[in-house]
Amino acid sequence: MARDRIWVGNYGEQVAAAWLQSQGCKILAKNYRGPRRGEVDIIARDHKLLLFVEVKTRREGSKIRGLDAVGKDKQALIERGANSWLKRLGTRDLPWRFDVIEVYVEDGERPRINHVKDAF
After folding, report:
1. Cα–Cα distance for residue pair 56/46, rounded to 1 Å
2. In a 3-state reduction of DSSP, which class is residue 31?
3. Which residues, at least 6 apart from 99, have a Cβ–Cβ distance to it below 8 Å?
4. Distance between CA atoms of 48 and 51, rounded to whole angstroms?
5. pLDDT of 32
6. Which run of H or E residues covers position 4?
7. What is the pTM for the complete model shown?
8. Cα–Cα distance, 47 to 68 (Å, whole number)
9. How far apart (Å, rounded) are the C-alpha atoms in residues 24 and 32?
10. Which end of the chain is more exposed for a tag (fewer CB within 10 A), N or C?
11. How far apart are the C-alpha atoms of 51 and 103, rounded to whole Å?
């Protein structure tokens, strides 16, 4: 079962990245891991705006929505990853935000995307 969950998560990240690209975003990094346990699923640029995106994939009909799974501990990991990325850029003087993309999947159906902008 764990393998199935990992596959679904990886699939959701691929779907989210492709969807962001279809919306005109440039993908800068996937599964970015910074020092001090920072992590970001997708780092993208939407024109001049930098997006730090957490992807949560759920099966259609799931009782818990993806956004609800991004609690304070997960937010802290994403913030550490974002801070690491900004440090690599050498500037914090650009607009950025934290988003969550919920990907809902069902066998035989196209995935459904819910993009929660400025999620936290």
Report:
1. 20
2. strand
3. 51, 52, 53, 54, 115, 116, 117, 118, 119
4. 10
5. 97
6. helix 2-22
7. 0.93
8. 28
9. 21
10. N
11. 17
pLDDT in tens, 39-95: 999 999 999 999 999 999 998 988 999 999 999 999 999 999 999 999 999 988 899
d(CA 3, CA 74): 22
2-116 to CATH, choices 3.40.50.360, 3.40.1350.10, 3.90.1570.10, 3.30.420.10: 3.40.1350.10
Q: Structure tokens of 87?
A: 């440090």
Binned at pLDDT 50, 70 and 90, residue 97 comes out as very high
| Cα–Cα dist 63/85, whole Å | 33
- 79, with CB counted inside 10 A (0-12, 13-18, 19+), is middle
Q: What is the average pLDDT value for the chain, to the nearest integer? A: 93
User: Higher confidence at residue 1 or residue 49?
Assistant: 49
